[in-house]
């Protein structure tokens, strides 16, 4: 009888541990206002409430008064009003990689520090790659900007191929004319790589609110 009880207890603990492991890789809404919703099919929008887990690859939209704070372990992403972005995660544990597709608006990110780059933010104008840092990404209809509070962020312009490593107190803005960098104490250097194509198009300047373009789904 004792052996049977111990066996059942071990099975329960294993199942519970597996559930926790799966949950650790999900982004959960720590705080959400009413004007926050997500879609997995680009057609039907579901209100996102505090405590809900966000499906992988789901597009999340915030309205003019919408704000959202997502958490995953020690990591945090804050959606400011009028923001449209999706999050895609591959792998698990130390092999986990996260890609954020941000079409419009502002994200404040606090990313866990690891030995290798594991998180990328893709906008219509630039890509930001990090190992672990605290930074902000702002996307408009004609450019994108990155500002770094802590850590190091590698920013690359799709159209010009310009690239810069930004540290704390430094920033970059990327638009049609290329990349411009600045810093509180010194200006970061710019190198060049081959131009590439963005994964998501820019929101048309005539559109007043974020909308998902046809076929613009995260990879």
From TrEMBL:
Keyword Cell membrane annotated: no
Which UniProt keywords are listed? Answer: Signal
Q: Specify the domain of life of the species encoding this protein.
A: Bacteria
Q: Name one Pfam family in it.
A: FecR
Signal sequence extent: 1-22
Q: Does the keyword rRNA processing apply?
A: no
> Any idea where the FecR protein domain is?
62-153
From the Swiss-Prot or TrEMBL record, give the protein name: FecR protein domain-containing protein
Q: Which organism is it from?
A: Rhizobium glycinendophyticum
């Amino acid at each position: 009888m004792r052996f049977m009880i111990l066996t059942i207890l071990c099975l329960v603990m294993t199942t519970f541990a597996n559930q926790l492991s799966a949950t650790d890789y999900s982004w959960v809404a720590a705080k959400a206002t009413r004007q926050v919703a997500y879609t997995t099919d680009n057609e039907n929008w579901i209100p996102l409430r505090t405590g809900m887990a966000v499906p992988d690859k789901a597009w999340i939209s915030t309205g003019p008064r919408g704000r959202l704070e997502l958490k995953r372990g020690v990591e945090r992403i804050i959606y400011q009003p009028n923001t449209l972005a999706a999050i895609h995660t591959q792998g698990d544990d130390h092999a986990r990689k996260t890609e954020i597709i941000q079409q419009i608006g502002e994200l404040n990110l606090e990313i866990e520090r690891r030995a290798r780059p594991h998180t990328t933010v893709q906008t219509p104008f630039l890509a930001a790659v990090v190992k672990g840092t605290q930074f902000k990404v702002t996307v408009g209809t004609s450019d994108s900007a990155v500002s770094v509070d802590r850590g190091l962020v590698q920013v690359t312009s799709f159209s010009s191929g310009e690239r810069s490593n930004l540290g704390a107190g430094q920033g970059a803005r990327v638009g049609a004319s290329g990349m411009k960098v600045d810093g509180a104490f010194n200006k970061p250097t710019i190198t060049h790589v081959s131009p590439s194509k963005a994964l998501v198009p820019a929101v048309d300047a005539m559109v007043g609110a974020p909308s998902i373009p046809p076929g613009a789904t995260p990879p």
